[in-house]
Amino acid sequence: MTPQLLFKRVISRHKSDAIVLLLCCGVVTRTQAAPPTATTVPSAAAISEAINRGADFLKQAQAEDGSFSAASGTGVTSIVASSLLRAGRTVNDPVVARALKYLESFRHDDGGIYLKGSNHKNYETCLAIIAFQEANRDHRYDKLLANAEKFAKKEQWDEDEGKSVDDANYGGAGYGSQSRPDLSNTSFLIEALHAVGRGPDDPAMQKALTFVSRCQNLESPYNTTPLAAKVNDGGFYYTVAAGGQSMAGQTPEGGLRSYGSMTYAGFKSMIYAGVKRDDPRIKAAYDWIQKHYTLDENPGMGPQGLYYYYHTFAKALAAIGDEKIVDAQGNSHDWRAELAAKYLAAQNADGSWVNKTPRWLEGDPNLVTAYALLCLSYCKTADQQTH
Prior knowledge:
By secondary structure, the chain is mainly alpha-helical. The chain contains 15 helices and two strands.
């Protein structure tokens, strides 16, 4: 009896057994992977509806004093204000106006905008700069922004802290001037400087770029640290300072593993600092992005920091300007459509978003919903965006 005839007799009762039998008999020699499922492109109306539902949730979540999640400092309030402004709200929107007034109440004589006694002065000030710049269409915050910029630059690790360019801390920013610098905080400093119009010719931007380049797993003239060659995959990790740290852990050889959120943060920071597309640092980072393209997780971290990852993903890809990304398998991705679809599917009934893995405050729906509104503003095509 031929394998084909035997298959016909059993297929109606034991389909899975028949497939196994065909494999054993050599009738089926290999299984081809199914082609990637096409993403349904969310319409501008669907994205706007999701944004409006998220904004409605935040309206209900705002405290009487204008704050959001005040126990975490001023940072969440700044991110929420930025997200609502990017989503099309104006400074006259009651939720935005109250949030900005709340943030203004934390201005200090040194120019910083932070909770009194905070250990996160640089972080809080940089996020406030981004929010107030979004609100500064009529120049009402010019003085506030100028003072805050001076404060943020003073907090940067450089000669004022007794650091030379050869020091691993040089150019970086931490939560405060006495806090070890890291790539996340340095990327917020660069974004704040970029927001107020600073470019590659700004000394603080170039100092920050020195630190960012040393957080990349890439041996180059810009990174001669002992860690540079141990992984050498073009991705980024959390910090080169104090011996180095990656939230994704170490290799057996002591290298610091690259991971998604920091790679996009580093990539975006380099673009803002004026690094060109043909630079080996950008090429290596882009190669890592292609090899690890996914929206199912924060590569290297799984569900941890997923929405922070989406946030850096959207800003970085908007900055490089590519509408499509080709992954390691040669599949082309409309990243805006895929990210928007992911967000629309994950939105809760009350309009919020939240990460079931709560590390790094992602159990806070105020923060995660603000991340969502920011991301969705980048998911709109150029002709759909409000600005």
